[in-house]
Design brief:
The chain is mostly helical. Helix content is 69%, strand content 5%.
């Protein structure tokens, strides 16, 4: 089990780095450009994008990105390494918490499950803040769990202090959500073990004070640099964003996170059914179920909803799925067939489905990739068959890990091809070749974070929010009429037909840049004037 855990952990870090996919938009490219700008401006307090303060996210993740850029330079590895390491720390912290709850073997299994579930795995591949939350949250929860097994108020205060250090870092990573989930966890433990209520309450008070002290210096520095920041972030973004539909991620239904949990837990979703059957006879398992359920309700009640916001639920999901694995392999039957059948379908079919989706959505044909994908699918199928034949759990889980790793390699084969349609690297390369930045670069229906990141330092120095802009299709026509002749408009190739319909006849492209078609404004003006 330790060898399987180590192999999965190593592959989860190395495979994406070897795949070397370009940076994704919208979020990864934006966060990369912000960290790059922090390094260039030597300002480690205020994150900025194109010179404008970026106030929507705390600082710790940007610090790790900036530190990596200083060491490795402006390349994908520098941006990808911090989230991959946070994903690895998340896997370790879930294993640590699972061990504290149900023992060492259970912890290793829970860590493997967490690291290979679709949502945690996917989020660890890209530079987004949410992946950094889980290690600090789970570490804080472990210390709160230790309170229930320690005697005396003094010990509770010491453990609360340690929890507070980690939860303070979670506040610097993703605001208050980590503290909320840790408090829910402590409440579930208290419901199970009434004798620990006093000690847990004392630990939570100490943890809260310490967490505030850890996070306060940066938040206070931001308030001094940008008066009103604390009101904006904690009142408008947190409180009003949770209670009202004032944020751009509002308007989603109350059940929004249910399919995300079901799909995001693949290929391990089927094991949750067995875990539900096991929970009836174990109060500690019921406490973990309560942690998950209350957390799900808390997120569902909030008005602002986003896929990555569900990530704090997945440590509980991984630990619960682990509790289902002994039942699946000790008593094979319809439940075992369902769990392993679902796992087989996902692991064998997912990489191929990704390649088919590329062909369907973008018309991107990659026939040479089918052979390596077939090899990876065969390895997954063989490992799953061995898992089924080599029960009990301690012999089956390493084979399940092998099947998952083969599927992960398959996904890493597809990932760079998918990234071509979600990055502006080639467009930036075309601009770098010109040597000067056009008067305005308008990118239709795309975020421009990766475009800024990949610009050469000299062009990046010329860039501003006026010269690099994101526009809608309707705005593109307006830009055509008012922009200087040497301005350019870039449109993704799969959107080209829609763009051409804006003109009496399709305009002639001036250049191709990867998956982008580039038009000079003067060309578009001439097309309009002829008709």
């Amino acid at each position: 089990m330790r060898r399987a855990f180590a192999a999965v952990a190593l592959l989860l870090v190395l495979a994406p780095l070897v795949a070397n996919a370009p940076l994704f938009d919208p979020d990864e490219g934006l966060h990369a450009a912000i960290a790059q700008e922090m390094v260039a401006r030597r300002d480690m307090v205020t994150p900025t994008f194109l010179g404008e303060p970026f106030l929507d996210k705390p600082i710790l993740f940007f610090w790790t990105e900036a530190a990596s850029l200083r060491v490795f330079g402006d390349r994908e590895l520098a941006i990808r390494l911090p989230p991959l390491l946070f994903g690895l720390l998340g896997m370790l912290s879930v294993a640590w918490l699972g061990r504290g709850l149900f023992g060492g073997r259970a912890g290793l299994t829970a860590g493997i499950i967490y690291g290979t579930m679709i949502l945690p795995l996917g989020v660890s591949q890209v530079a987004v803040h949410d992946i950094g939350l889980v290690p600090f949250m789970c570490g804080g929860c472990w210390y709160l769990l230790a309170v229930t097994r320690a005697a005396g108020l003094g010990r509770a205060v010491t453990l609360g202090f340690a929890a507070g250090l980690l939860l303070g870092l979670s506040i610097l990573t993703k605001g208050l959500v980590g503290c909320v989930f840790a408090t829910i966890f402590a409440g579930c433990l208290a419901m199970r073990q009434r004798s620990a209520i006093r000690d847990l309450a004392a630990a939570l008070v100490v943890a809260g004070i310490v967490a505030i002290l850890v996070a306060a210096p940066w938040y206070w520095a931001m308030e001094q640099a940008h008066p009103g920041y604390l009101h904006y972030y904690f009142v408008e973004r947190h409180l009003q964003g949770y209670l009202t539909a004032t944020q751009r991620h509002a308007g989603r239904p109350w059940w929004y996170y249910v399919p995300i949990v079901i799909g995001g837990a693949l290929p391990w979703t089927g094991y949750l059914l067995a875990a539900a059957a096991a929970a009836r006879r174990d109060s500690l398992r019921l406490a973990v179920w309560a942690w998950f359920a209350i957390g799900l309700v808390f997120l569902s009640v909030g008005e602002s909803k986003l896929v990555t916001y569900a990530l704090p639920l997945f440590p509980a999901v991984a630990i619960l799925a682990e509790t289902g694995t002994p039942l699946v392999f000790s008593r094979p039957g319809s439940m075992a067939i369902l769990a392993m059948g679902l796992q087989a379908i996902v692991l064998i079919a997912l990489p191929s489905a990704g390649l088919l989706a590329l062909q369907w959505k973008y018309g991107a044909h990659h026939p040479a990739l089918w052979l390596p994908l077939a090899v990876m699918a065969s390895i997954s199928a063989y490992a799953l068959w061995r898992a089924w034949r080599t029960r009990p759990t301690e012999h089956s889980v390493p084979w399940l890990a092998t099947a998952t790793m083969a599927s992960l390699v398959g996904m890493m084969i597809v990932l760079p091809r998918a990234a071509d349609w979600m990055t502006s690297r080639d467009l930036a390369a075309a601009l770098n070749t010109r040597g000067t930045l056009p008067p305005r670069v308008s990118v239709i229906d795309e975020r421009i974070g990766s475009l800024v990141f990949y610009l050469s330092p000299s062009l990046r120095a010329e860039a501003s929010s006026e010269r690099l802009v994101e526009v809608t299709f309707a705005e593109a026509v307006m830009r055509t009429r008012v922009d200087p002749d040497e301005a350019i408009i870039a449109v993704r190739r799969n959107q080209l037909e829609r763009f051409n319909r804006l003109f009496p006849r399709p305009p002639q492209p001036d250049a191709q840049a990867g998956t982008f078609t580039v038009f000079r404004t003067v060309t578009l003006k001439e097309t309009l004037q002829r008709h």
